[in-house]
Write a structure and sequence with these properties.
The complex is a heterodimer of chains A (84) and B (207).
Chain A: H1 4-15, H2 21-33, H3 35-52, H4 61-77
Chain B: H1 5-10, H2 12-20, H3 24-46, H4 49-65, H5 76-96, E1 118-121, H6 131-143, H7 147-158, H8 163-170, H9 174-196, E2 197-203
Helix pairs in contact in B: 2-3, 3-4, 3-5, 4-5, 5-8, 6-9, 7-8, 7-9, 8-9
Classes of the chains: A mainly alpha (84), B mainly alpha (207).
């Protein structure tokens, strides 16, 4: 059986589903028998999920206004791939 | 005529083609589509509002400037993320050069994968917090990571770039991305456990 340390080294790839079938079987066997590693696996998985679920917030209005102004200024001065 | 407007809006290559010809509305649409994500990325890496705004502007100005050389082999988003990462890292190095781990320095994997706290989380711990509180907890946890881990985590798990795209954007190897991502994830797990664990259900264990 894999040691806890070996399990942890593979945890990221396991969560990203990039391990081969044989290694996945051994990792699954490990967490079935090791409650601590199961908790680490479960809470790491949820850590990733909670970040992935985070929507970017709207830009602050002044930041957005300045961005649009800068883009407009740039575009009025020059056209990409075309001469003015 | 079939109603193609919706399809057109979502068809990025059409937008790009128009933007290349200098169509302001088309380029603005691309800016609107990605500005929030680019700003978030820049804030996460630079940890500074002013720098993040500079990065945001520079990214889209450079994108516009080099639009004709963008071949469309990668996604437009991946391309501008790469610009934004470069700009952000330059800001970071400028501001914090004295106490920043260089991004290309090999990092010892050794004992940092040690897990200190193992506790079961509540079923829906994020529901205990308002959206703002939760965002604050998540942001602070990320900000406390070392830059080398933070940048990898932000690109992989927040902006959802692939391992290969992340490696390319940061100029580091795929194994380096993987080892940093593992450590970032484990460290964040540990930080969030303090907020999300089920009360009275601590398991103390050291691996």
């Amino acid at each position: 059986m894999l040691t806890c340390k070996e399990f942890l080294q593979e945890l990221s790839d396991y969560l990203d589903a990039t391990v081969d079938v044989e290694l996945r079987r051994r990792l699954e066997a490990h967490i079935t028998n090791c409650p601590n590693c199961f908790v680490i696996f479960d809470t790491t998985k949820r850590t990733i999920q909670v970040y992935k679920g985070m929507q970017p917030q709207a830009l602050p209005q002044d930041v957005e206004a300045r961005l649009m102004k800068a883009v407009e200024r740039k575009m009025s001065g020059k056209k990409p791939g075309a001469s003015v | 005529m079939p109603a193609t407007t919706t399809a057109e809006v979502f068809d990025e290559s059409a937008l790009l083609a128009k933007a290349r010809e200098g169509d302001l509305a088309a380029f603005n649409e691309l800016v609107n589509r990605y500005s929030r994500k680019i700003y978030r990325l820049a804030k996460h890496i630079t940890q500074n509002d002013e720098d993040a705004e500079d990065v945001l502007q520079e990214t889209f100005l450079k994108a516009f400037e080099h639009l004709s050389s963008f071949q469309g082999q990668s996604k437009f988003y991946t391309w501008i993320v790469r610009i934004a990462v470069n700009e952000s890292l330059m800001k970071l190095r400028k501001r914090k050069s004295d106490r920043t781990v260089p991004l290309d320095e090999p990092l010892d994997m050794g004992e940092d994968t040690v897990v200190r706290e193992i506790a079961v989380w509540e079923d829906n711990p994020e529901q205990k917090y308002s959206r703002e509180e939760l965002a604050g907890i998540l942001d602070e946890a990320v900000q406390n990571l070392k830059p080398a881990f933070r940048t990898v985590f932000v690109l992989r798990d927040i902006e959802e770039l692939s391992t290969e795209e992340t490696a390319e954007a940061l100029g580091i190897s795929v194994p380096a991305v993987k080892s940093r991502l593992l450590r970032a994830r484990l460290q964040l797990r540990e930080k969030l456990t303090r907020f999300f664990k089920r009360k009275g259900d601590d398991v103390f264990a050291y691996l």
